[in-house]
Amino acid sequence: MNVKLRLLSVGVLFFTGQALMAQKKTTVRPKTDTTTKTKEIEEVVIIGGVKLDPAQKVGSYNVVSKASFESTPFSNVDDVLNGRVAGLTFSSASGDPGSSNMVLVRGVSSLIGTPNPLYVIDGVVVGKGADNASLMESWNPLSSIDPNAIESVSVLKDASATALYGSRGANGVIIIKTKRGKYNQKTRLEFSSETGIQDRAFDNLKLMSGDEYIKYGGMLMWNSQGTNGIPVGAFTSLNDAIYNPTYGYLAKYEPEFKNNPTPYTDWEKAVNRSSSVVNTYNFGATGGGENTSFRIGGSYYQNKPLVNTSAFDRISINAAIDHKASEKLKFGLNINYSNVKRNTYFGGRASANPVTSSIMLSPLRPIYNSDGTYNQILGDGASTEGFNPVSILNNIDQISKINTFIGSANVDYQFAKNLYFNSLFGTQAQFMNETIHVLAGHPVYTIMSTIDPPKGFLGDYRTTIFDWNWSNTFSYRKVFAEKHNLETFIGMEYQNHTYNNISSQTYTLNDPRPYFNFADEVFTSNTDQEWTQISYFGRLNYTFDNKYTVTGQLRRDGNSTLGHQKWGNFWSVGGSWNVQNESFIPKIFSSAVLRASYGVLGNIPYADQWYNQYNMYALAGYNSNIGWGPNNGYGFIATAGNKDLKWEESKHFDIGADFGFFNERLKFTLDYYNKITDDAIFEIDTPSETGSPSSYYANAAKINNKGFELVIDATPISKGDFKWNINANAAYNRTVLDKFYYPIDIKTYESDTDDDSNELVALAPGHLLGEYYAIQWAGIAQQDDPAKGIKAGDALFYTDASRTDVTNIRNQAERVWMGKNAFPKYTVGITNDFKYKNWSLSFLITGQFDFYVQNGVRSYTIHYGAFPTRNQITDALYDSWTDAPGMENYSASNPKAVIGNPTGSRLESSRFIYKGDHLRLKELKISYSFGSLFKESVGINNLTVYLRGTNLLTYVFDKNLNFDPESNSNAWSWIGKGRYWYASPVLRTMSLGIQLGF
């Protein structure tokens, strides 16, 4: 068997609109140039046989090649797109593999729901990567997809490119095309493997050591004289031999350590592995005869992330077969299956979150007691008995098993001359089994602390998500008089989406074995939801003389989740001018296309996230556990309902140009867009007098996105054995909330009195979407001001936006618009690829600029004495105001720390907000191909070895930023963007790989 491995291209990672050209098309330049020019073209199939032809490009879209996805150390498809597509912004909720990501294409278009684009895999509409987990902190369903099976990814941006997806394409569409075989190709076998070591990509959160913690305790006691029962003058020196602040601190807050000193505990080291390991194994077999082609492949992805006991294992199998029954009838079948087993842990600000505990726990508290048992009495003021994070990791199992099937079948039939029929049926089925087993003595849920004697917990959550879509399209295609190219399409699509969940929990497990048979009482619940969409669509393409192209699309959608107005009509028109085929074009151009489009798309932002499918109805609820007297239970209105709920309308205007010079060795693509979302759905508060419910959904706002995009492809050197390719993309985007249609002046998301909810963003007409709206930090008082009650070392806040006056009472300061949000205004990505003989070197640098990020837990990582038994970052010791003898610091950035933080200075303000601008060496890869050196001896057609690094270096422009600038707290809403929330850090990977072909 003659089998050949094709060397992975590590060259230009994507080309705008004309990437990875697979077909060939001939165009003739009239009059002045009669030479034939050949262009390789990949046509992007969007729906029902409708294709976007780059030769007559009208819409705005980019294509990312398979070379970017093969043997990648990332668990998610969307992680690979970061930096490779102009106008696409990426952020991650966690470095834990399988966690949800936020992917924005040309900004945020809705106020609720995930802002992610729509994903389509081999014609199957799989949703927007929304998190549908019941137990896991977050789950990215795209983690079920094997990146190694991907042939290409097309990112559709404007109305002309996305209109045929109607109500689900307003945020952009990402089309994933998996690998297939080719006709008349000898069978080829491919194998690749990669092993990598991972650590933190960027994490400057430096915690105090044991010595620093004790020293800080002494400073805190000194600062607290006159408060907390400590008389003024109680201490004369930090080093008094009999009774000093350090002694007093240990006696009051760390008596166990004072009486019986033990070795310090590095909780981060105890909770985390020193490094993470990731392994990938991939194989594939492709081939084809005259009438049938096939591909079958599979992979195993194994990752043991940083947090101990966490793990991610994925087995994937994918297959594709195409058959030509005749010249007029063709069939195709794609099947993708994956099994994911994921071990996770509690997340967010939960006391059981090991990441949280490792930051907050005192280094003076030992992991184990002297008898070798776990020390469960940590007494840190936040963790009660049973919250030792090492014990929790070893005695609590959170295991999720996710089986995902994605399959599509299609048929193309030419039933008459120039008349075609296409039918595609696609389905996605996801079966999630999430379990949690907690041994007795770990009261991770409040109710468990009331049960005596302590008992265990068992939870079992089973979810089935089933989606299917069926599209049928008739088309007429003909070229008249060799100049008039006409294509018309009419079609219909039906989508059905169901969600079924059943859960069981017990808090009274009497046995360490995880079976409900051993429980005293079991609680169960279930939910079943469904929504459908019916669509009718048409498209017309006309090209004259390979110069002028016009296209128009019309789609009528009906969606079951809306009110009385379930149907909407959406459309787009566009045109392009292939200037290159004009006689007057200067010879310096090797290609030149001008294009423009405008369209109105519908959108339902919550359609891809469950529990909002019945918003038009007023739904009743019943609670049997709460009541009065002998009659337990009560009924209530669960949702208000809104029968007038209708489509959001997203209006897209795009103009662009594509130019090539020097026989396409230098290419430019430029785009300007203006995207307006009208009737944006939002949650409207009801008057408090009406009682429950407190809000309902309505069409309430208008949002505006404007931006520019630039892509440059260049080949500066191509001579002999050496070739150098460059691809660079840059984008600008600004998103503004234009208006509210309801009397809403400002919508805030933080609490006025504490930090239970501290999203420092707000919405108001005329402001950036999600603009920061916060009390403004004014620094540290350098001297007493008796008239204002200010003492040296106090935290100061500006009283209002004028910044003319300050106060040390936080509640006397007004919130102020900061003119910045968490969405980068500018993004860049630059890829360089060098090839010399058998050597290849490539690297990708990404950057995001002019945006701010928020530390959602800063009031804990440095709390100014609020929690005297919790650890903090080292700034609490070295950069805090104090007049303690020998530790004097009057020019510090942080205020005087006092036990209990009576002034509330730790609470949210602009101190929580940092400049997020950064540059990142996203990927570096060096490879060597032995070619056919071993063909005769061992039958290997090709052998390639490579060394790859991802997220190798990160440079931030704000020296105070100590968490990853690409963080987000969740991906279900734009509110989570740029907010750090006790997450496992983004990982850096160094890996070694090999590719074989037989």
Mean pLDDT: 86
Strand fraction equals: over 45%
The CATH architecture category of the domain at 44-187 and 274-352 and 387-629 and 649-767 equals Beta Barrel
Oligomer: single chain
Which sheet architecture does the biggest sheet show? Answer: 22 strands, antiparallel, barrel
Radius of gyration, in angstroms, nearest whole number = 31 Å
Number of strands: 47
CATH class of the domain at 44-187 and 274-352 and 387-629 and 649-767: Mainly Beta
Q: Which structural class do you get from the secondary structure elements?
A: mainly beta
Q: Spans of 5+ residues with little confidence (pLDDT < 50)?
A: 1-41
Number of helical regions = 11
Main location: membrane
Domain TonB-dependent receptor-like beta-barrel: 401-843
Pfam family, one: Plug
Family: Belongs to the TonB-dependent receptor family.
Quick synopsis:
By secondary structure, the protein is mainly β. The chain has a domain at 44-187 and 274-352 and 387-629 and 649-767: Maltoporin, Chain A (Beta Barrel), CATH 2.40.170.
